[in-house]
């Protein structure tokens, strides 16, 4: 049974749909006019604290603030 | 794959009969000795048992489709951070599907469409509202309800033409100089999105 339907070029290059969709959204956000651009970039910021576990106890947490980038 | 089917079937039958001691019978074959007590007790219980249920019997009933086509299309247009249109009754919606601009009227055949970067326009009487959609999906249901989901959708006035031109030039150059598959794909996406924005602003 042959593969059905031509795969999109990004899938062929090993990219998933979510990655593709996020790249598209980031590009659109970068091309916005000023107040909207700052708002949207602010909206998409994430802050999280990551702690690895060893021997059943959490180690020192790492705080990360990532702004999205293409 | 199915060409071997008959050979495999005949092979298993002969195997079962010749070496029944070592080969196990399939569960669908009748047992060689029938246990009469089991059959008796089964016959007593069987008429009172319901047949096993299938997953679809646990689903909520689907919303019914009106017998006549409704006059208006109900649109739910949502973004991850906001609900842009919620149960809005409109006349028509034109969505940028990967297969081209698709016009959706009430009574449209149920469809799931993947959206490409492009303009989505909502027509209500003489009012036309346009959004530039980055990507997403549109689910058109049989009862004339359209669920459109997008990651980023902006009114055309909010797009800066200068930055679009700059981005287009940058990504066209990146596409020409890309080496790995992934770089080429990223540059290609950049070119597509910026050309779509360009066309949206000028069209």
UniProtKB/TrEMBL annotation, chain A:
Assigned keywords, A-Z: ATP synthesis, CF(1), Hydrogen ion transport, Ion transport, Membrane, Mitochondrion, Mitochondrion inner membrane, Transport
CDD domains given in the database record: F1-ATPase_epsilon
InterPro entries noted in UniProt: ATP_synth_F1_esu_mt, ATP_synth_F1_esu_sf_mt
Superkingdom of origin: Eukaryota
Localization: Mitochondrion inner membrane
GO-annotated biological processes: proton motive force-driven mitochondrial ATP synthesis
One Pfam family this sequence matches: ATP-synt_Eps
A molecular-function term among this protein's GO annotations: proton-transporting ATP synthase activity, rotational mechanism
Cellular component per GO, a single term: proton-transporting ATP synthase complex
Entry keyword Transferase: no
Gene3D superfamilies the record matches: ATP synthase, F1 complex, epsilon subunit superfamily, mitochondrial
Task of the protein: Mitochondrial membrane ATP synthase (F(1)F(0) ATP synthase or Complex V) produces ATP from ADP in the presence of a proton gradient across the membrane which is generated by electron transport complexes of the respiratory chain. F-type ATPases consist of two structural domains, F(1) - containing the extramembraneous catalytic core, and F(0) - containing the membrane proton channel, linked together by a central stalk and a peripheral stalk. During catalysis, ATP synthesis in the catalytic domain of F(1) is coupled via a rotary mechanism of the central stalk subunits to proton translocation.
Subunit text: F-type ATPases have 2 components, CF(1) - the catalytic core - and CF(0) - the membrane proton channel. CF(1) has five subunits: alpha(3), beta(3), gamma(1), delta(1), epsilon(1). CF(0) has three main subunits: a, b and c.
Family: Belongs to the eukaryotic ATPase epsilon family.
Protein name in the entry: ATP synthase subunit epsilon, mitochondrial
From TrEMBL, chain B:
SUPFAM superfamilies in the record: Epsilon subunit of F1F0-ATP synthase N-terminal domain
Quaternary structure, from the entry: F-type ATPases have 2 components, CF(1) - the catalytic core - and CF(0) - the membrane proton channel. CF(1) has five subunits: alpha(3), beta(3), gamma(1), delta(1), epsilon(1). CF(0) has three main subunits: a, b and c.
Gene: LOC108827376
HAMAP family: ATP_synth_epsil_bac (MF_00530)
Molecular-function annotations in GO: proton-transporting ATP synthase activity, rotational mechanism
Domain (ATP synthase F1 complex delta/epsilon subunit N-terminal): residue spans on this chain: 73-145
Subcellular location: Mitochondrion inner membrane
Keywords: ATP synthesis, CF(1), Hydrogen ion transport, Ion transport, Membrane, Mitochondrion, Mitochondrion inner membrane, Transit peptide, Transport
Summary of the function given for this chain in its UniProt record: Mitochondrial membrane ATP synthase (F(1)F(0) ATP synthase or Complex V) produces ATP from ADP in the presence of a proton gradient across the membrane which is generated by electron transport complexes of the respiratory chain. F-type ATPases consist of two structural domains, F(1) - containing the extramembraneous catalytic core, and F(0) - containing the membrane proton channel, linked together by a central stalk and a peripheral stalk. During catalysis, ATP turnover in the catalytic domain of F(1) is coupled via a rotary mechanism of the central stalk subunits to proton translocation.
Location (main, coarse): mitochondrion
Family from the record: Belongs to the ATPase epsilon chain family.
Protein name: ATP synthase subunit delta', mitochondrial
Organism, scientific name: Raphanus sativus
A Gene Ontology cellular-component term: mitochondrial inner membrane
